Amino acid sequence: MATKKHKLPDHHGYFGEYGGRFVPETLIHALRELEDRYRRIVRTTSFQKELKYYLEHYVGRPTPLYFAERMSADLGGAKVYLKREDLAHTGAHKINNTVGQVLLAKSLGKKRIIAETGAGQHGVATATAAALFGLSCEVYMGDLDVKRQALNVDRMRLLGTKVVPVYSGSMTLKDAMNEAIRDWVTNVETTHYVIGSVAGPHPYPEMVRYFQSVIGTETKKQIMRFEGRLPDSLIACIGGGSNSMGLFYPFIKNDKVELIGVEAGGLGIKSGKHGASLTVGERGVLHGTMTKILMDQDGQIVNPYSISAGLDYPGVGPELSYLKDTGRLKVYTANDDEVLSAAVYLSKKEGIIPALESAHAIAFARKYVKRLPKRAVVIINISGRGDKDMGIIRENIEFENDNGKFKK
Predict the structure, then answer these.
(1) Are the beta carbons of 370 and 77 closer than 8 angstroms?
(2) 230: exposed, middle or buried (Cβ count in 10 Å: 0-12, 13-18, 19+)
(3) d(CA 73, CA 220)
(4) Is 116 a residue of the active site?
(5) CB-side neighbour CA atoms (13 Å) of 326
(6) Contact at 8 Å (CB) between 204 and 198?
(7) What is the per-residue pLDDT across 165-176, written as a single tens digit (0 to 9) for each?
(8) Is residue 408 annotated as part of the catalytic site, yes or no?
(9) Which member of 116, 138, 218, 263 is catalytic?
């Protein structure tokens, strides 16, 4: 089990057999420059002081750890706590990483920021950080996501960012990332690519993990104040994996803390319309890294599906693939109907409307927590708020029915 000796990635950027740097030659210099700058600057007192200032006074950290008393009582098992990343500035955990990366980009002398986004939360967070530090910004977004996340598109444009619709492939996150990489190859001398998840070529998985690990570091301190001990289980949704690695990483060496990831089951694994890369994916290269990906018998990428745009991705961060293979991470899925039901449940039970991404974790917890003893402690990461998903929720739920009757 990869726990007490977990000091990964290695100096080549590998987590076991996953990770690495599979990119065109033109990007190798930029990635080496980024890795060198990241290692030299990130631990310095001046960088830490600046990052801490913006996380506290701009992002709004620490975010609360909230005891979900009504949900705990209703499920009748473990005590349930919610880590409220939905209360961070811009409404999701994504801002932790974008503030850190844009600060790095400034130190590299880059004047232009690019990013890709699916649900729009990473795009909004990147646009926000670029505006904060006065850099120009363009965000690539699949045209399907442009339509289903229209509110976040308007937010990015209001922040001064150019949103570039992508019409190729399935017109979702995978295709947006392809276009962002092409842009980066062309403009690497002036442009920093802010990858939003623990995916992509080395050093991105390590770097994004570091900027997001503030979630788990805070959680550890907060649960010690509440309970005087570490939790029994941590639960987070997994698409690319930034919110889950951010929560899990500070606990990896604590073997008794169970790490649970919940992937997009979509219309069901057997239907083939899902985003469950860890559950049924195979080892392959996607967007510059070796990891588990969804592919067909000919090795071609299979278009993923999820009701949640943020989990609509055919791969996952390489460290999560490694943790799954070593048994440190347990992985489950939640289907679309379970996710919608979970969004209604948390809204009515605790007055918190979760992003559909986060609702995957809630959906699994509803089945899991009731099987645990009352002395057990479970923490669920609420990675984002659900405002952006109201259009999707409206399409699928009859609001006239107090119980949230599904249309489909």
Answers:
(1) yes
(2) middle
(3) 23
(4) yes
(5) 20
(6) yes
(7) 999 988 888 889
(8) no
(9) 116
Instruction: Report angle CA 68, 70, 73 to the nearest 5 degrees.
Output: 105
- Whether residue 383 lies in the annotated active site: yes
Structure tokens at 71: 């949900």
Overall average pLDDT of the 370-382 stretch: 97
Catalytic-labelled residue, pool 79, 83, 94, 110: 94
Could you tell me if 81 and 223 are in contact, meaning their C-beta atoms sit under 8 angstroms apart? yes
Residue 1 confidence (pLDDT) above 60 = no
Question: What are the pLDDT digits (tens) for 222-235?
Answer: 999 999 999 999 99
Q: How are beta strands 377-382 and 79-84 bridged, if at all?
A: parallel
Token couple for 164: 């570039």
Backbone angles phi, psi at 368, to 5 degrees: -85, -45
Residue reference for tokens 């990906």: 293
Angle of helix 214-227 versus helix 204-212 axis, rounded to 10: 30
Sheet holding 65-67, edge to edge: 65-67, 79-84, 377-382, 233-237, 258-266, 329-335
Quick check: 90 and 128 in contact, CB under 8 A? yes
Q: Cβ distance 309 to 240 under 8 Å?
A: no
Active-site residue identified among 72, 321, 358, 383? 383
* Distance separating alpha carbons of residues 289 and 14, to the nearest angstrom: 9
Q: Give the tens place of pLDDT for each residue, 176-191.
A: 988 998 999 899 999 9
| Residue the block writes with tokens 């986060």 | 358
Which residues on adjacent β-strands are paired with residue 166? 142
User: pTM for the full model?
Assistant: 0.94
